[in-house]
Amino acid sequence: MHALYEWVAGPLTWVAFAVFVIGLVFRLVQVLVMVRKTEPFIFTYMSWKFSLRSIGRWLVPFATLRWRTSPVMTVATFAFHLCLLVTPVFVLSHIVLWDEAWGVQWWALPDAVADVMTVVVIAGCLFFAGRRIVRREVRFLTDASDYFLLALTAAPFVTGFLAYHQVTQGAGMTIAHMISGQVLLAAIPFTRLRHMLLGWLTRAYMGSEFGGVRRARDY
Amino acid sequence: MEENQKPNHEKLDEGIDFGVSRLTPEKIEAAINAVFNRETGARFRAYVETCIHCGLCADACHFYLSRDKDPRFSPAGKVKQTVWPMLKAKGKVDAEMIRQAARIAHTECNLCKRCAIYCPFGIDIAYLMSMVRRVIHKLGATPLYLQDTAHSHAATMNQMWVKGDEWIDTLQWQEEEARAEFPSLRIPLEVEGADIMYSVIAPEPKFQAQLIYQMAAIMHTAGVRWTMPATMGWDNSDMAMFSGDNEIMGRIKRAHFDTAARLRVKRIVMGECGHAFRSVYDMGNRWLGWARPPIPIVHAIEFYYELLKSGRLRIARKYEKPVTLHDPCNVSRGAGLHEMARYVADQICEQVVEMHPNREYNYCCAAGGGVINCGPPFKNTRVLGNKIKAEQLFDAKSRGAQTMIAPCHNCHSGLHDIVHHYEVGLEIKFFGDIIYECMEKE
């Protein structure tokens, strides 16, 4: 068990981060090369000002028409994404690992707060899954891959929660937590989770079109 | 709900059905892959791969809202029924699928882009639908009436088979009519070096010649140095843009710009049309490689705004009935002219009652994007598919509106059908109608 732990915490972590980082860089380069090759006019219209105007608006809850007209979804998705991104970076037990490996430290979330944020992520996944079942317009668009992505996203948080609270004996849950986190990271560039990267680009392009050419709001 | 799933044997449209009857699996595969793999690029891929299937676009669509929120009419729902299977099967889809895709992309989406401002990622579903139309065009299965219009463009460089002499005759006829009211009025033809070339869409000379009369009266009264071409290139409309026939779209736009260049005018002013405007600032210019129109183009709304703001045109007595203003997608969400439109409306009308939603957020008329040009077989699709518009208009009426201004030909005709079908009881006018009626003459 200890050897397995060492292997997962060591080499496998390297692999996961490498796939995540290199994968996203590859995706970014791929899309930029493709724009240059097939649709270079896109660069003509891109504008920092209007890209940031659009992204900025959409990053603020209730600052766009769509956020205002779907308040429950707005609260859910902002809480979910915020906790999803912040918790893994600022949870104390992760920082300890960074410290042990590289001797770097930063501010940590109080454990109780991190605990609540973990629950928010899990609840968010359940909310999105429920929405896929209950709402007709979402159900129509849903296939197995959507539930798979939700499960993939929830897994590290569920296992992390269980490991922290020591629901099971031994290192099994911690190893499951690490593996599920690594799988999630590595999956991002290769699944629709890559909206983490592409979403900014499509938003920026639409913001540029609306601001520069159409002189209208896209929010 | 089931009415939408028409059985295979039922006729959809002569053009679609005949085109589909000649398809082979090889042709379908070749056309889909030609468009999706070679004509599209990063944008298309990013849109499809970024969509997280959240359904937030649904509430943007008038078809969805009007069809009891049937998810098949939601924007992403339309992508699911067209683009997804084509991509997943790498083009190996059957003819029936193409038939349904033609129905969805051509008659159940107006390319109004309201969903683009509902999508958190800014995914341009109208663009995806226009790529489906491009596939349908390559397969020769475009709806009959729309294809006829594209043929007219190709053969005559105008939308309505107007012949060269008919065009000039119509202008001279309107000039003669107008000279009874304004004795020195001219509709100047082929004046090189004029400030403005005025261009219209072909339905104006074909059956709405009074609109040309009105604009001539406005130009004359404001003392504008203007001209109209006596050659082809006078029609600024572009239905090939909506049939997926990009090659013809480009030819039409080139003829229009070339004509203005030949006449060495400073600017082109175009009548109250939405899609024609879209074709010069958004689609046709880009196909020809111009980031912006090569010659400045001014929509009638902006032109009226200039004339009223500068005092070149004065209003004798404001239009008395309360009006409501419909913001056409291609001039408001598409080109940001909604505040100018409000300035004009305030200048010429006693009272403006806003409809809600308005400006960029306004609901589509369900006629634009080539849908009304698909003709009688799909009239019910767009009228019954826009109940929400009728509700929006009833609300404006309940707050006093008696007249609706719709500064776009497609909107105008589509809203006329809606007002008639739902018995809304609103009069529909162009800005030009009211300006002509209310301006100081001579």
Question: Could you give the topology of this structure?
Answer:
The complex is a heterodimer of chains A (219) and B (442).
Chain A: H1 2-38, H2 41-45, H3 48-58, H4 65-69, H5 71-90, H6 92-102, H7 111-134, H8 136-139, H9 144-164, H10 172-187, H11 195-213
Chain B: H1 14-21, H2 25-39, H3 42-50, H4 62-66, H5 75-88, H6 95-107, H7 125-138, H8 144-156, H9 164-181, E1 196-199, H10 203-207, H11 209-222, E2 226-227, H12 240-243, H13 246-262, E3 267-270, H14 275-287, E4 297-299, H15 300-309, E5 323-325, H16 338-348, E6 352-353, H17 379-384, H18 387-398, E7 403-405, H19 409-421, E8 427-429, H20 431-438
Parallel strand pairs in B: 1-2, 1-3, 3-4, 5-6, 5-7, 7-8
Protein name (chain B): (Fe-S)-binding protein
Domain 4Fe-4S ferredoxin-type (chain B): 42-70
Keywords (chain B): 4Fe-4S, Electron transport, Iron, Iron-sulfur, Metal-binding, Transport
Question: What's the gist of this structure?
Answer:
Chain B: Pfam families: CCG, Fer4_8. Chain B: It comes from Desulfatitalea alkaliphila. The complex is a heterodimer of chains A (219) and B (442). Chain A is mainly α and 219 residues long.
